[in-house]
Every structure is written in structure tokens, then in C-alpha cells.
Amino acid sequence: MKEITPALRTEGVKYAIRDIVLLAEELKREKVEVLHLNVGDPIKFDFETPPHIIDSVYAAMQKGFNGYGPSLGVEEAVDAIKSDAQGRGIKNICTVFICAGVSEGIELALAALLNRGENLLVPYPCYPLYPAVLAKLEAEPNPYYLDEDKGWEPDLNDIESKINNKTRAIVLVNPSNPTGAVYSQETLVNIIELARRYNLMVFSDEIYNDIVYDNKKSISTASLNPDLPVITFGGMSKVYLAPGWRLAWGILSGESETIKKYDQALQKLLRARICANHPEQFAIQPALQGDRSHLVSMMERLHRRRDITYRRLNSIKHISCVKPEGAFYAFPRLDIPISDEEFVKKLLYETKVLVVHGGGFGQHPGTKHFRVVFLPSEEILNKAFDLLEGFMEKHF
Ligand SMILES: Cc1ncc(COP(=O)(O)O)c(C=O)c1O
């Protein structure tokens, strides 16, 4: 038989966060212990899914909710998501849908909007799923830059200069993966103004919404303008510590006449994939409306880890880092003569510290960064930063 050739569209699919893990796995096979500062999965560290939400899934299975569920999601979960969104100031909610992770929600939301060759404004640096999904749809990422000198806030002039007649929407990741920035109300209002002027839909990825430091407030974009067509994404993976359940939601809001046809198309795609994971959906109401005390101890630990990360990185020569205000990532800048990809590989082989290179998220040409996940314990973080410091002193 002739060799089976994959579709050309797969060539554009890159996901640096997992691709780099292949290198670490080689080391693991040789029984070398790797310090993982690369993966945004709290369960891999000392965080646990709250027991009451685990119990609610068991209970749902025991009650027999093991068949297919409704395409948009089970009623009590949809209602809980809706009232949580209203509590965050989102009005004009048209449709709430539950999906297998924000990852699936993004695929469906983008598939319902973009034709081949159209483009989506995507922040650089960005969580790499967006460009990967666009490659599958044969649509284009249209990068706008986040401004490192302004705490990684979006650069409004850059956004406006990138809009063309094939631009359909803009993505906001707030709080941000990979920079940890939390956008100001002023920035969001200005982006909304641009979106209205150019008829752009907004995809606001707010999966880290309750993970913010220093009394910062993470504002839902949709809450600032009830008429703007927005899908707000949230989910169980980060705030509710259940990433393996693959459970999330999208909230479509805006003026109903403007979004009616899009909503119908999106719902068609939601029906075509039958439903999201059914029994897990019974955890949503207890998570959003029940005991949320896990967040207090989680935030205490994360706050200390954020402070260590920020302090230690800025004390290392040739590294500088903007203070993360939300999520659990830092995106330090490197001032070194080799590429950030080479840096990450060399660091891994020599010190067994695993981080992801900035190029995997997109960055200003000529700049070099890497992403640090500060979910590990203080002890592991300090050990990793000691090794990083020694590595930098030795080589640069
Ligand atoms: C900004 C952002 N959006 C979406 C996701 C994926 O979320 P989910 O686990 O719900 O698919 C992640 C995962 O790291 C993320 O950082």
C-alpha cells in the first residue's frame, strides 16, 4: 500500500506546551527526575478537586445519568452558569452551552463563525490552542501584540492597525495565559469600542477569572456592554481544580437580532456532537453555588508562589519579569545570545528544569521569553530557580 499522507492543514497545528513534554519523557525513560514548571494542571501538584463536587458526579452516575444528555447541557448546570454570569454583570444572555473543555467550546465557536481565509485577532503571546484550531479551520490567526512595557496589556493601536476586511472577531484571554496579566476596565472598554466600530465578535476566555492576586478584579468583558456579541468562556479546569473532567461552558450574550443566525449555527454544531460529558455536569451547580472554600487555601498558596517566582526571576542576571496579577503563569524575558527554544532544551538537559519557550506562544520578533508555571510547591520552585540561576551564571 502507498504511504497514507496526512492533510496539509495538520502542518499548521502546533502546541508547544505538550510538544516540549516529548523531550522530558525521553529523560524520564532514563529515570531522571524532571522539575515540571511547564504544565498548567493543578492536580499534578498539591491541589485537589473539592470532595463535594466529586461526590456530586458519583451521585449523578448512581442516579442513572449515564446516557446522553441535552446538547446545550443539563438544566440545573445551565441555570447555575447563567446566574453566576449575571452575578458578574453579564446581561442579555442568549445561550449558555456546556462543552468538553473550553478547548471544545473554542473549536465549535470558531467553526460556527469563520470561513476559510478569514482571520481572527489573537493576542501574542497567546495560549496556543487558538492558532491550532484556526489551522484546522483553514482560517488565519491575525496576531496583535501585548505590550510588555505596559504590564502585558493589549496594544490598542496595534489591534486597530491589524483589522482588515477578512477580520471577523477578536480573542481576549483575561486573566492571561501565558503572561498572568489582568486587563484594566479602560483597556476592555477601548477594545469593545473597536469591536463595535469594526463589527467584530469577541471571544473572551475567562477560564482563570477567580485566580487573581493583590485584590485585583477580573472584569468580564461582556459585562461592560450588553449589546456586544460576546462568548465568555469559563470552566472546571482551573478555578474548580478538575481539568481531567473536560468540562467547561460558553455564554453567548449580546443584542439578540445581531447574534440570532450565529447562535442557530452554533447550536447546530452543538447538536451534531450530541452533548458534553453528562454525569460530570452535575458538579457545576455545587461548584458555582456550593462550598468554595478550596479557593481560599489555593489562593494563599498561589500568592506565595507568585511572589517567589517574581522575586527570584528578577534577581537572575539576563532575566526580567512583569509581575503576574492573575492565573498561575509568568512570562519572563531573556536577554541572551541563543534562541529561547535552544535555551529551554539546554536548560532541560543540563538542569532537568522544564519550562516552555516563548516562541511557542508567539512574541514580538527579536524578543525571547519562556513561560514558568508557578503551581509547584515553594520548595520545588526554589530548587528550580537555584538551578536556573546557576545555569545562567555558567553560560551568560
Ligand atoms: C487560556 C486557556 N483557555 C483554555 C484552556 C483549556 O481549557 P480546558 O481544560 O477547559 O479545555 C486553557 C488551558 O490551559 C487555557 O490556559
What keywords describe this structure?
binds pyridoxal-5'-phosphate; Aspartate Aminotransferase, domain 1; 12 helices; Aspartate Aminotransferase, domain 2
Explain the overall architecture.
The protein is of the alpha/beta class. The chain folds into two domains: 8-48 and 293-395, Aspartate Aminotransferase, domain 1 (Alpha-Beta Complex), CATH 3.90.1150.10; 51-289, Aspartate Aminotransferase, domain 2, CATH 3.40.640. It is built from twelve helices and 15 strands. It has helices at residues 16-29, 51-62, 75-87, 101-111, 129-137, 156-162, 185-197, 256-272, 284-289, 294-314, 340-351, 378-395; strands spanning 35-36, 93-99, 119-124, 140-147, 153-154, 167-173, 201-205, 230-235, 248-253, 319-320, 329-330, 333-334, 353-354, 356-357, 370-373. The strands form four sheets. Strands 2-9-8-7-6-3-4-5 form an eight-stranded mixed sheet, with helices on both faces. Helix 10 packs parallel to helix 12. The longest helix has 21 residues, at 294-314. The termini are far apart. Pyridoxal-5'-phosphate binds at residues 40, 101-103, 127, 173, 177, 205, 207, 235, 237, 243, 248.
The CATH class designation of the largest domain is Alpha Beta
Largest sheet: 8 strands, mixed
What is the 3D form?
A: globular
Strand order of the largest sheet: 2-9-8-7-6-3-4-5
Strand content: 15-25%
Q: The CATH topology of the largest domain is what?
A: Aspartate Aminotransferase, domain 2
Structural class: alpha/beta
